[in-house]
Every structure is written in C-alpha cells, then in structure tokens.
C-alpha cells in the first residue's frame, strides 16, 4: 500500500472516528429514538411488510452475496476475475471477519435496545453502551448493530478490490455505506437500535478490513524472505 494512500486512509478513519465520538458525546441517541417511539413502543416494530422489506430480505441477500464471494474464490465471476486467488480469499476473510467481529461485540455488551427501555414500554433503564459494567436491567446484547453489518460488513472488502479494480471499489464503497445506513435507520425506526449503534458498526467493519489488509500485506512481504531462507537451508550440507 503506497504511503500516501495509507495516510489518506488513516485520515478518513480518524475523521470518521471523530464524528462518531461527537455523536456519542452529543447525547442525541435517546432524543432521536423518541421521534419514532412512544410509551407504547415503536409502531413499526411488528409491521410485517416493513420487517420483510428492511430486515428479512436484506439479510437473505447479504448471505447470498457472501456465498457468491466464497464460490468466486474457486470460480471467479465478473470483477473477481481481475483479482488473484489470494486477493479473493482475503476479500472473503475480510467480509466474514468484519461480520463476526460485530457478532462477538454484541455478545459481550450489556446495553439493551430502545424497545427494551422503560420509556418505550420496556423494562430497562437507558444506559450508554460505554458504561461498561453498568447493567440496565434489560436483556442487553444490542450494541453494536448486527443487522447493519449485513451491509457494512462488505466495507472490509474495499481494501482488496481497490488494488486492481478502483472504479468498482468506489461503487462498492458508496453502495455499502448507503445500504448500511438504510438498514441502520430502518432498525432505528423499529426501535431495535440507536443511531450510534449503526455508526459504530460501520466503523468497526471498516477497521476490521483495514487491519486485515495490513496483516495480509505483512504476510505477503515476509513470504518471499521465508522461502529464500528455506531454500538456503536446504542447500546446506
């Protein structure tokens, strides 16, 4: 990765982190949730058409795309033909790794969803997801936003695609961010998440991709050295 590109990516990452921290510090999560929920709950929570359109179908499509990428490792299609097999493997590992990270973070966190908060008819008290160790007396495991990772998880693949298909990478990035925000907002309307949950999900998925890229680049750079060392050892009596 050229140094100037590294600096630019780190600049984007730092800017995104700053904006998300500012949102958290603003305390707007709860006021924003009040726009869609009442003391009786969130009207769209059980709306079958809304749930089907913005939850069930997107989740299924996301799973199918992941399967298609896995198949593409062995039988490349469309833009995957422009990637080496090593890059196709990294693409799959990056995306799955980002999604798995969100799942693990959700299992570790004790923050409950808006629809579980007493202000919206639930049993939990509102507690920030950064109040580590403070229980809100609800079911928890709501932070970050798992459903938004159905789209944001693909952010991690941008680091691979941009190397050989920069135009495709730009479209990939734009579509992934747009879909992630749409899915996150849909869950906000249903009371399933606060906006910060969605924003942090996008950031965590992006960071997972960045770290995977660095790890893979380091491995590729060390591999020739390792092979050369092994060859010399084999020639020694």
Automatic annotation (TrEMBL):
Pfam families: PAP2. It comes from the Bacteria. The chain crosses the membrane at residues 57-77, 89-105, 143-161, 168-186, 198-216. Keywords: Membrane, Transmembrane, Transmembrane helix. InterPro entries: PAP2/HPO (IPR000326), PAP2/HPO_sf (IPR036938). SUPFAM superfamilies: Acid phosphatase/Vanadium-dependent haloperoxidase. Residues 89-212 form the Phosphatidic acid phosphatase type 2/haloperoxidase domain. The keyword Transmembrane helix applies. This is Phosphatase PAP2 family protein.
């Amino acid at each position: 990765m050229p140094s100037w590109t590294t600096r630019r990516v780190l600049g984007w990452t730092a800017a995104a982190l700053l904006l998300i921290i500012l949102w958290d510090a603003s305390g707007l999560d709860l006021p924003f949730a009040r726009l869609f929920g009442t003391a009786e709950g969130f009207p769209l929570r059980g709306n079958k058409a809304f749930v089907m359109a913005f939850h069930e179908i997107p989740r299924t499509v996301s799973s199918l795309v992941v399967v298609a990428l896995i198949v593409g490792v062995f039988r490349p299609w469309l833009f995957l033909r422009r990637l080496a097999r090593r890059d196709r493997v990294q693409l799959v590992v990056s995306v799955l790794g980002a999604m798995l990270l969100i799942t693990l973070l959700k299992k570790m966190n004790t923050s409950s969803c808006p629809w579980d908060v007493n202000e919206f008819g639930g049993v939990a008290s509102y507690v920030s997801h950064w109040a580590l160790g403070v229980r809100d007396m609800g079911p928890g495991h709501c932070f970050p936003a798992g459903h938004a990772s159905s789209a944001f998880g693909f952010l991690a693949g941008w680091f691979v695609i941009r190397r050989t298909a920069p135009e495709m990478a730009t479209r990939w990035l734009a579509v992934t961010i747009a879909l992630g925000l749409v899915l996150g907002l849909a869950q906000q309307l249903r009371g399933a998440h606060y906006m910060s949950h969605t924003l942090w999900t996008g950031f965590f998925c992006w960071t997972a991709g960045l770290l995977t890229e660095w790890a893979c680049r380091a491995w590729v750079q060390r591999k020739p050295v390792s092979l050369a060392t092994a060859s010399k050892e084999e020639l020694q009596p």
